[in-house]
Design a protein that fits this description.
Layout (H helix, E strand, L loop, with lengths): L1 H4 L6 H32 L1 H8 L15 H11 L4 E7 L8 E7 L7 H7 L24 E7 L12 H4 L3 H11 L5 H25 L6 H4 L8 H31 L1 H11 L22 H11 L4 E6 L8 E6 L10 E6 L4 E6 L6 H7 L1 H6 L4 H47 L1
Antiparallel strand pairs: 1-2, 1-4, 2-3, 4-5, 5-6, 6-7
Helix pairs in contact: 2-7, 2-8, 2-15, 4-5, 8-10, 10-11, 10-15, 11-13
Length: 425
């Protein structure tokens, strides 16, 4: 009963939550600010490239886009030794390059002109059926750099050297935001746990902000003429509550991208959903010739008439299907695309994953990346996400100043009290 009569600010749970909010914010403010700022930069990456003139040095050719097989063949010929095309992203508008992500070559395949002839067929079909029809394992298929290719002239616009392909300011920003320049898996995990810390700050901040009866209007504003601790507290609370919904959505999606399996399983336990990242397994046919990538693309387009080709991922192993991304006509930029899996041996569509038919859980999972990147919901959402990234510096400054000014005031009072006791003695 005595505890119930205490003001909320004096209760143990409130003071504990206050200390958690304070010290998590103070200790992690620098990396959290870094994640916020780099995230905002990536949201406006296209605008920054246009502003700085960061465009391919070689002019893009006019005309119809070449077949996917020709683009992949050009990438294979330009790829450094030990690499091969692993994922093709087609431009969404004329005048943009196609982007090919390189992966470690499997089996006897190598980059360069000679490797392009000795490896998989130029059409991009998977390797021939293994002996006995059993799948063969290859080296890790991790990213090994990227190539930019003119989809009309097939000219290589970027340097094929993976080390140089990963250079540049915006590329560094990508790596900073994704893994803090730590190349192995631990970097992404650290970023994920920093996202968890952001969620803790957001939720605890909401509880600490929650106003007393009769103070709701003041809690959403900054008092005119406020100074010192009051000014910083009002800024911290008002800006925080107005931006909280976007902040929580963007932060949660970032944690999901760092821990997709864990959070995906959590979402699926509440809202049933398939693993949308899982590949489709097919049965290789001994002695048969798999269809090439152009035929696979044609089959995928037949499955979703009117959709625009967005990406192509050739099979990494003979027992995998082509993975082809298609965007329905009129779909907003960045919204979840459909994925069509094509069996290269049976020459048929093995599975279609269309956002229009997703369950509630699958929709939640599919939207995490677009929500985090500020895509899929128009310019209003894009700029809301941008602002959510530039707010951590404000929270860091106002929070640190509140702590410093209160600490300074406490020390002054302690000094006054000690002087008064010394005089009385």
């Amino acid at each position: 009963m005595a505890n119930a009569s205490k003001p909320r600010s004096q209760r143990l749970w409130y003071r504990t939550l206050q200390n958690i909010h304070l010290w998590v914010g103070l200790i992690l403010c620098l990396p959290l600010v870094l994640l916020g700022i780099t995230g905002s930069i990536l949201v406006v990456e296209d605008e920054l490239r246009a502003l700085t003139g960061d465009t391919p040095a070689q002019a893009m050719a006019d005309g119809p886009i070449q077949p996917v097989s020709a683009i992949l063949a050009a990438a294979r010929a330009a790829a450094p030794a030990g690499t091969q095309p692993g994922f093709l992203i087609l431009p969404e508008e004329p005048g943009r390059p196609a982007v090919v992500r390189l992966v470690a070559a499997r089996g006897g395949e190598r980059g360069g002109e000679r490797g392009g002839q000795q490896g998989a067929p130029q059409g991009g079909a998977p390797g021939g059926a293994p002996q006995g029809g059993a799948p063969q394992s290859g080296p890790p298929q991790g990213p090994m750099g990227m190539l930019s290719i003119d989809p009309v002239s097939l000219a290589v616009l970027g340097d094929a050297n993976p080390a140089q392909a990963s250079g540049g300011f915006l590329r560094t920003v990508h790596i900073l935001h994704g893994n803090l320049l730590i190349r192995d898996r631990s970097g992404r995990e650290i970023v994920g746990w920093l996202g968890v810390a952001m969620l803790v700050l957001g939720v605890s901040g909401l509880v600490l902000w929650w106003p007393r009866p009769g103070r709701w209007k003041a809690a959403f504003t900054v008092k005119a003429g406020a100074r010192g601790v009051r000014l910083h507290r009002d800024l911290h609370g008002a800006v925080g509550i107005w931006s909280l919904a976007v902040f929580i959505v963007v932060t949660f999606s970032g944690v999901y991208l760092a821990f997709p399996q864990t959070l995906g399983a959590g979402v699926s336990s509440v809202l049933p959903a398939r693993d949308l990242r899982a590949a489709v397994t097919v049965q290789p046919v001994k002695g048969a010739t798999p269809i090439d990538v152009d035929r696979a693309v044609a089959l995928a387009r037949e499955a979703l008439p009117g959709a625009e080709l967005r990406s192509v991922s050739p099979p990494a192993r003979p027992d995998q299907a082509y993975r082809i991304g298609l965007a329905p006509a009129g779909q907003a930029h960045g919204a979840p695309a459909a994925t069509v899996f094509v069996d290269p041996w049976a020459a048929r569509v093995a599975e279609v994953r269309d956002p229009a038919t997703y369950s509630a859980g699958e929709t939640v999972i599919a939207w995490q990346r677009p929500l985090h990147a500020g895509e899929g919901l128009g310019p209003l959402w894009k700029w809301a996400v941008f602002l959510s990234g530039v707010l951590p510096p404000l929270f860091a400054v106002t929070g640190t100043l509140m702590w410093w000014l209160k600490r300074k005031a406490r020390r002054a009072k302690d000094a006054e009290r000690a002087a008064a006791l010394a005089t009385a003695g």
